[in-house]
């Protein structure tokens, strides 16, 4: 099924999300967006490493270890480890949404979006945005209320993220507040949810 310049099919993508996806902008080369398969774990880890090792702020090992650590934790949501696959069958992108406690609470209501990886050869084509939009839709369908992400406000703002302070959330010491963002998946999704955003629940981020 071709949808808005991409193919969104198989592996836990609900029909309701496919219909919403069809209304989005065209322009992305043909691809499949789906849930990652277990046998693709190593391929995804290698992709994440290769994407981040060439950046100014990372050598790639941290992000690769984060993926592995999330998978081995109680916060892992297999359905929300999402890949983009090219028409030749190559995995060219990956995002991971995982349960995220705030001050040790509400881990079944809030998600962390990290990491977000797109093969450098396929960047600046909207692939990351398509994966994020699909993941957010799936998370909403699954009953989650909000998502946290650390990254560029210019980039993540395009998919509806706002500064975390807009929702009454606080950041642990050492986390740059200007780059800490959140998004409600339902109206007033963060109402009644409070606490500190602290990434040190993962050894690789402590």
Describe the structure.
By secondary structure, this protein is of the alpha+beta class. The chain has one domain (33-205): Gcn5-related N-acetyltransferase (GNAT) (Aminopeptidase), CATH 3.40.630. Helix content is 25%, strand content 24%. The chain is built from 5 helices and 11 strands, in the order ββαβααβββαβαββββ. The strands form 3 sheets. The chain has a 7-stranded mixed beta sheet, with helices on both faces. Strands 1-2 form a two-stranded antiparallel sheet. It has a two-stranded parallel ribbon with strand order 9-11. Helix 2 runs antiparallel to helix 3 (61-71). It is globular and about 45 Å long. The termini are far apart. 33% of the residues are buried.
Distance between the terminal alpha carbons, to the nearest Å?
43 Å
Major beta sheet summary? 7 strands, mixed
CATH-defined fold name: Aminopeptidase
The number of helices is 5
Structural class: alpha+beta
Q: What's the SSE pattern? A: EEHEHHEEEHEHEEEE
Q: How many strands appear in the DSSP assignment?
A: 11
- Per CATH, the superfamily is Gcn5-related N-acetyltransferase (GNAT)
Regarding CATH, which class? Answer: Alpha Beta
Percent of residues in helices: 10-25%
Rounded average pLDDT: 88
Number of domains: 1
Q: What Rg is obtained from the alpha carbons, in whole angstroms?
A: 16 Å
**Beta-strand level of the residues, as a percent range?**
15-25%
Query: In the CATH hierarchy, what is the architecture at level 2?
Result: 3-Layer(aba) Sandwich
Regions with pLDDT < 50 over 5+ consecutive residues?
Answer: 1-11, 20-27
Strand order of the largest sheet: 3-4-5-6-7-10-8
Molecular shape: globular
């Amino acid at each position: 099924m071709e949808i808005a310049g991409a193919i969104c099919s198989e592996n836990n993508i609900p029909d309701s999300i496919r219909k919403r996806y069809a209304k989005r902008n065209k322009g992305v080369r043909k691809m499949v967006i789906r849930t990652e398969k277990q046998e693709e774990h190593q391929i995804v880890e290698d992709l994440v490493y290769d994407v981040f090792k060439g950046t100014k702020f990372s050598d790639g090992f941290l992000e690769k270890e984060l993926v592995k650590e999330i998978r081995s934790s109680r916060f892992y949501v297999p359905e929300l480890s999402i890949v983009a696959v090219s028409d030749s069958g190559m995995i060219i992108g990956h995002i991971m949404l995982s349960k995220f406690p705030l001050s040790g609470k509400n881990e079944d209501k809030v998600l962390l979006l990290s990491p977000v990886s797109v093969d450098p050869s396929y960047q600046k084509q909207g692939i990351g945005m398509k994966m994020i939009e699909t993941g957010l839709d799936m998370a909403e369908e699954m009953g989650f209320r909000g998502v946290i992400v650390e990254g560029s406000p210019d980039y993540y703002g395009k998919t509806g993220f706002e500064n975390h302070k807009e929702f009454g959330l606080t950041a642990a010491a050492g986390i740059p507040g200007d780059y800490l963002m959140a998004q409600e998946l339902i109206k007033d999704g963060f109402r009644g949810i409070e606490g500190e955003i602290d990434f040190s629940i993962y050894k690789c981020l402590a």
